[in-house]
UniProtKB/TrEMBL annotation:
Keywords: Membrane, Transmembrane, Transmembrane helix, Transport. The keyword Membrane applies. This is Aquaporin SIP2-1. InterPro entries: Aquaporin-like, MIP, SIP2-1-like. The chain crosses the membrane at residues 12-42, 62-82, 94-115, 150-169, 189-211, 223-244. The keyword Transmembrane helix applies. Its main location: membrane. GO terms for cellular component: membrane. It is a multi-pass membrane protein. It is found in: Membrane. Belongs to the MIP/aquaporin (TC 1.A.8) family. GO terms for molecular function: channel activity. SUPFAM superfamilies: Aquaporin-like (SSF81338).
Length: 259
């Protein structure tokens, strides 16, 4: 009886400790999302300011090359930050792709806590940018009609999510190669959509600028920069699951063939 009582107390203690560690880990992840989103809004502005204002190379070939190189370095830095924070991110579509594949609790945690933390970080970041550099501009805007804009953002997001999911499986071990391919893909897609919708593929970042302009609750913003990327992310995850077999199934098929 004494041993059974000790085992019960030991299990209860382990369960309580596990719950506390889980809550601490989730709280730390929310802080990471907020800080990384704040830094992400600043990073793009600082690259433009450095090349255009301080180097005087705006709209010149050398300036575009410098911006591309700095943006790639920037993406490597944020990929490293995501690694050391165990998943901290600035883009809702990034965490949503993983949450769709996970359980209900993880999905609700992503929707109800992590995405709001990213949005808040972007809003605070943009607010500080405008206060510090008033001439910086007002962020991406929709330059085509609402339906074409939603289709554009949806296709861009669908493509980058498919690429990211493929890299997570095929280039899992190589941080450099995975980040290199992902960075070039994001930059290419951003350039393709920059004149149409801004080529953002990041609802939280766009929300920061839209909130500063006061048009964050308009139909155009919600449909183009939120609903389209979210639906494209879910569709990309489902499509990827249909087209690509998990690694365990591939191993099982290869074993059955050899047998």
């Amino acid at each position: 009886m004494v041993l059974n009582g000790r085992k019960t107390h030991y299990r209860a203690y382990n369960y309580i400790l596990f719950c506390l560690l889980l809550k601490m880990g989730r709280a730390r992840l929310l802080v990471s999302d907020f800080v990384i989103s704040f830094m992400w809004t600043w990073s793009g502005v600082l690259v433009k300011e450095l090349v255009c204002k301080y180097m005087g190379l705006c709209n010149e070939p050398l300036g575009e090359i410098l911006k591309t190189g700095l943006n790639i370095i920037n993406m490597f830095i944020f990929a490293f930050l995501g690694k050391i924070t165990n998943g901290g991110a600035s883009n809702p579509t990034t965490i949503l792709a993983g949450a769709v594949s996970g359980g209900v609790a993880n999905f609700l945690y992503c929707i109800g806590a992590r995405i709001p933390a990213q949005v808040l970080g972007s809003i605070v970041g943009v607010k500080h940018i405008i206060h510090t550099i008033p001439e910086v501009g007002r962020g991406p805007r929709l330059n085509i009609d609402i339906h074409k804009g939603a289709l554009t953002e949806g296709l861009l997001t669908f493509t980058i999510v498919i690429i990211s999911l493929g890299l997570a499986i095929k280039v899992r071990e190589s941080f450099f190669m995975k980040t290199w391919i992902s960075s070039l893909s994001k930059l290419t897609l951003h350039i393709l959509g920059s004149d149409l919708t801004g080529g953002c593929m990041n609802p939280a970042s766009v929300m920061g600028w839209a909130y500063a302009r006061g048009d964050h609750i308009t139909k155009e913003h919600i449909l183009v920069y939120w609903l389209a990327p979210i639906e494209a992310t879910i569709l990309a995850v489902w499509t990827f699951k249909l087209l690509v077999k998990p690694a365990k199934e591939d191993k099982a098929d290869s074993k059955s063939k050899t047998d």
